[in-house]
Amino acid sequence: MKMYDTTQSIEKYLNVELECSCGRTHYAPIKAVNIGPGALASIPGYVRDFGYTKPYILCDKITYDIAGKRCEELLRTAGFDPFVLIIRHLGFDEATLGEIVLNKPDDCDLMIGCGTGSITDMLRFSSFKLGLPCFTVATAAPMDGFSASVGIMNVDNLKATMPAHSTEVIIGDTDILKAAPYRMTIAGFGDLVGKLNALNDWRLGAVVNGEHYCPHIADLVNDYVQDILGKADRLRARDPEAIGDVMNALLISGASISLYGSSRAISGAEHHMSHYWEVIGDQRGRPFAMHGEQVAVATVLALSVAEALRGRTVDFDRARAAARSYDPDAWKTLIERTYGSAADAIFALEEKFGKNRTEGRLRRIDALEEKWAEVRSTLESAYPAEKLRAMLRDLGCPCDPKDIGVDEALLRDTLLVCKETRGIYTLYQLVWDLDLTEEITDELVRDLRARGAV
Ligand SMILES: [Zn+2]
Ligand SMILES: [Zn+2]
Description:
Elements: E1 18-19, E2 25-26, E3 32-36, H1 43-49, E4 55-59, H2 61-77, E5 83-86, H3 94-103, E6 110-115, H4 117-130, E7 134-138, E8 150-155, E9 158-163, E10 169-173, H5 174-177, H6 182-209, H7 215-229, H8 232-236, H9 240-260, H10 269-284, H11 291-310, H12 316-324, H13 328-339, H14 343-353, H15 358-370, H16 372-380, H17 385-395, H18 408-417, H19 427-433, H20 437-450
Parallel strand pairs: 3-10, 4-5, 4-6, 6-7, 7-10
Antiparallel strand pairs: 1-2, 8-9
Helix pairs in contact: 6-7, 6-9, 6-11, 6-16, 7-9, 10-11, 11-16, 11-17, 11-20, 12-15, 13-14, 18-20
Bound molecules: zinc ion (2 copies).
């Protein structure tokens, strides 16, 4: 089937091969989503229709009360004999995985996870390892991982992205979601606004770095995000329909990883900042904020960097001189200071991607000079930072570094080195390529200090 020219409802993108004019075939292996009031009641129907007979339900004590118990009752009433595991090992690590495997009934043929990030990540990974299909029942909508095809868990005390599979069915019962803490829904909104920068980063990657780009996938993600931006007021009023729309947008966002084959459309410099804060938070033994909250703050910063850059007259020869005099040892010293015990992982990443090597950087500077008008128009099309900041503030979502406990020193380090957490090209790599990182960082930090935002 041909990829649609205009954005459709989410079901149209699931479990169907879409041949696209971008040259790729887009496919998301999710079979069904059901978002709406009373959606949980549909679960026995899905189990039966897909031919499963013995579900194994994963939840923790809290999500059992929120959704697991009802899920169990619904399945029993429909004639199934589900087995429920209320997970006790909550490190979401090797011990949790062991508990899930130890308790798995021999005759189960489907796993169902009730929860949010950690449980559903563990569900996708453990069911993949056990060779069983899985369904997800969301108890809140704080991030876009539900429809992902990977699973994050702790291995050797480090967060690891494990190969997994997509869930077949995702249930987002708005009667349940509307009862979730407001902060969680707003974090989901924060993860979504991150796409405003991520999509720009992808466009920049295409223009400057010659990357493959799919305008249909970009439009799809953007349309869902723009829709949500228009519903901020209804979210503040905790309108269940608007919460359902957030869930749908998060699902499209997550599904775009399968559809496109990478997270290019939904993760850029704003996620790199959040990843950096995660690394530092782990080292300090305390996270700064929820993922989506961090992404919200980072998005305001990234949009501010885009604004600072687009008004400049760029000296491309100065950039070339900086590229030629690049000192890898000085870079290593900076990484050791800013990443601490995680520095080795960053060195390995740079070894693999070589994004700072002079040759590639010079090539990108040439492309930037040649296509500066297009680059500037991409930067000019970015969502206004101040407008987003005001919207987040109004919703009660963190929007300034200060709101999540990031101080001036850490903010400075973040702007200097967060681009090193991943290999992809973003606005921050562009700024670094042009030798403007320190200049723009100083400007931004000064500005944030003046308004008491850091
Ligand atoms: Zn495409
Ligand atoms: Zn995210």
